[in-house]
Sequence to fold (510 residues):
Amino acid sequence: MQHKKQTIVNVAASLVTLAIQLLISFWLSPYVVEKLGEEAFGFINLANNFVSYAALLAVALNSMASRHISVSYNLGKIQETKTIFSSVFLVNCIIFAVILILSAFFVIHINSYINVSLELLYSVKVTFFLSFFNMGFSLIGTVYTAAAYTTNKMYYNSLVQIIGNIVKGILVVALFVLLPPQIYYLSVAALFSGAIILLGNILLTKKLLPNIGVEIKSFSLPKVLSLIKSGSWLLLSNISNLFLNGLDLLFSNWFISAAIMGRLSVSKQIPFAMSIALGSFSNIFSSSLTKVFAVSNNTMVANEAVSQLKILTILFTVPYAVIIVFGLDFLSLWLGKTGYNIEQLHEIYYLMIIILLDIIISTYMYSIHSIFIAMDAVRYYSVILFISSCISVVATLLLLQFTNLGVYAIAGTSTVILGVVHGIIVPVRAAKLQELPWSYYLKIEGESWLTLFLIIILFGLSSLFIKISGWIDFIASLLLLSSFGYIITIVCVIYRFNFNRLFIDLKKFL
Fold:
């Protein structure tokens, strides 16, 4: 019972963090496009993509660090925990120094690698360098997030994130309102926020793991090599995700134009918000599954994964249906002052839905993916994802070269390929790994998709009788529809479309 309560508190804290992040994102996006243009907006997100490229240098070491710290500590192996903690921290410091040197060289010659107009060149350079520097705070602070993970009190990390995001939000608004608009303001705010989050997680580690800290004498090269070996498959997964989702803006910049890159970046904002929401559950669910795996059997792990999938279905199905049915109305209101014409808004909407499908597929298998991490068995998943990502890159380049699909080829190819990998192959492999029937997770996934289709139909029919002329109409209509949508979703998830059982329970209740 205590385990379930902690998970619920963790989820609630993550939702608060998400809400703050979304408020910043949705206010900033149209403002920057209006004041600086869509090209400038594209470079803000492209800088974040390049940071993710650089971060790959540390993925093999850090991806499994929290898991190994958690397992060692919960087994009472304090000295081993200190060794892992200290080794990861010290190597991360070295990696950050290397990245900083390489990033300085890259930023100086940035116009040799990407297309940047002369009037934006200085601002883009500052944006990229600050983004790389901010990555250092995240990198160095990686081991300090392990304290909350180890104790399954991820809400502490979320509280630190909330404070950091509040600071970030205040700085972003102040800089853009009080000073002439510049695209690097977000990077400046993120830098301050990152410093606060690092300090907060250091203090949390002292509170939750008072006997664990950085000790130079505890450094162990064999332990570092062991962690890298353990995390090498997740590194391969991250490279695969980069090929699938991290090159789209760069390809748009190289093969189409900086303006189209900006438009694609705008279309990614709502799916990206959903991805952030989904990502907020990553450590929570992984931590929970790891703890269950450490003390129980495959059946308990499967039950935990299914429970997590049901939570995700309940939380995300209604928002996804809202975006699909009312996405164009939202874009018309949200981007109303940016100068986009109706054709451009339709283009942004179609791109948004294509990208969103990828997020939906990931949502309905998210907890299943955590099984591979909890069981330290990511090899198969990593290999199949890498193969599919290579196919995606080659297919995208061929479509760009030999068709007129343009930006739709960039956005759509990975969605189709991930649909097969995440929607079919991964659930089947997870079931086999746990010695369950191959269709075990596919059935649960299918119920989630069936619930989504049902809510889309309900919202689609309702939209025929709704006239939206402003934000008040939009918000009021969606609040009413979402309430009904959540009721239906909860019923579908609980009863799993077993209407006989539903009617029996209704008779008892009445």
The chain has a mean pLDDT of 80. The first helix runs from residue 2 to 36.
